[in-house]
């Protein structure tokens, strides 16, 4: 018997697509679906799981808000109208039409409406992101794959030449909670060795970063979700792919990433790499020294880690290889497909987005330390083990909570050494107080 | 008559003659003094055309376009013998979702309290039977129609559509869906057609409730935009429809059919292929001798 998911970790494909599009400056999403799709998408922008209450206003996202008549007679002309209206009030740039479940089911001819707008000189593209097609991470994959494959149909202003440009794929805005901070740190690391990151999202990205995609010397793929756009660019413009298993947490991982990038491009300055690695190691060693006493007090822990693959796997690798911890369970909450190659760092690697299954996996592992989203604090309290939250942290985590490089290690060590065993509030205790 | 109307769904593959059959049943019932509503559930919206002499009739779903709640008068017209004619309507082919359209139209009729206001004795749903999504199953779901009939000819695709309807009936029966009244054998022309349908009915545990021969009378009446009951009330064909109408609304055993599965249906069709074409071959051989 199937059962409903409890405490689902990801949104639907449409919400991932929406978060992805909204994170590119100059690009406007238009949701072609029933009203709840865009509305729920607007809640989600408060943070991956940040929404707790009901909105008092409608979503600020352009949406065709289909009614029953559009389902019966087709919603294509409503879309035509909404494309026109959206372009008349929002600044030009790129409009991305994202289709949800109802329109995919009734088979609206969305490409025809988009082609019509394009013939009128507008820059519009459509992406099918019905919730039944997959999770939010899948929605990211669909949007970027479509943008990469059809980049020269988008009528974008030509990108300036950018020698040493590297596309960064696989970090999903908002759904990988520390996305902005991690993309920023990756960009800093690449800049130090003479490369220029194309993070697409946030202040380092924007409309012009899309036009630049085919001009890159490599596509750096940090999670399986970034593979499809990288492959589209490889097929289209011969951009080589460098795939690594998640964000580089720690100096060793940075070294490995740079070695693989250097093999794929000839633009990396060896001396600069040496200089960067020395400074990364010094930073990491300093952080380890500073927390040594607290770390030794913690001892060698049997740790369970739950999080998205872009970050949970690399954290497990660091804890096992660098701190000598015992990885008991690794739960990948974005449900990546394929072999994660992470079994060396955890007794069990489980792929599930279902909160109840995540909890069960953590219990089964009998850990004495838990690293997971804040929502699992209560479970740690129940198990009476220390808990270090790495997600569900709210907005500040996106800006400054990342785990990339030696600086990421410093934040990880801070979280580990600050970990406390949550107090379980029983009803009786609450009544006594 | 009793105060609760009897709801009956008549399914059939497109072009099989289900609208002609249903309209003639409605006409026959009306002629004998019954109050009848016929609801066409086919996006083509031509179910009731020979009851209303081709008069214009806005469909239920047309009213959905302007979001205003229509009145019963706006979406119905009185046809031959006082039959209340309603067309659910639907999108043009290739866009939107006709299945959702049927469901939406049935909901709207319920909201308009059509049955409470018109107080019919019988409500006949004429439903396109070769579309297989859930929307087209609405009339046989949730206790809307109590029994369903299927119009079939000896054409294999018509039998295939009938078999599909049997599957739907089986599926919904457990949750209060319609039971099968039986099969209406239409356009019976060749000697084997009757046997073939009898055999199909026997295999699926169902019953043929009437045999309607192919007839000039039907074609002629339709050219005048009328049912046979109206245009040629004394014809043999009119009598056949009257008998069929009595049978369809009369008390009879309803049942759960046993639809054939894919391979069974294929084997069955093949065996009939052998029989029919064997017969033709023999006839040709005889002619040559
Ligand atoms: S699952 Fe489908 S209907 Fe629900 S919000 Fe996502 S796209 Fe919309």
UniProtKB/TrEMBL annotation, chain A:
Taxonomy, superkingdom: Bacteria
One Pfam family from the record: Oxidored_nitro
One MF annotation (Gene Ontology) recorded for this entry: oxidoreductase activity
InterPro entries in alphabetical order: Nase/OxRdtase_comp1, NifE-like
SUPFAM superfamilies to which the protein is assigned, alphabetical: Helical backbone' metal receptor
Location of the Nitrogenase/oxidoreductase component domain: 12-414
Signal sequence, renumbered to the chain: none
Coiled-coil region list: none
Name by which UniProt lists this protein: Nitrogenase molybdenum-iron protein beta chain
Organism of origin: Rhodoblastus acidophilus (Rhodopseudomonas acidophila)
From TrEMBL, chain B:
A GO term for molecular function: metal ion binding
Entry cofactors: [4Fe-4S] cluster
Protein's UniProt keywords contain Cell wall biogenesis/degradation: no
Classification via InterPro entries: NifH/chlL_CS, NifH/frxC, P-loop_NTPase
Keywords attached to this entry: 4Fe-4S, ATP-binding, Iron, Iron-sulfur, Metal-binding, Nucleotide-binding, Oxidoreductase
PROSITE patterns linked: NIFH_FRXC_1, NIFH_FRXC_2, NIFH_FRXC_3
Family the entry assigns: Belongs to the NifH/BchL/ChlL family.
Full protein name: Nitrogenase iron protein NifH
Organism: Rhodoblastus acidophilus
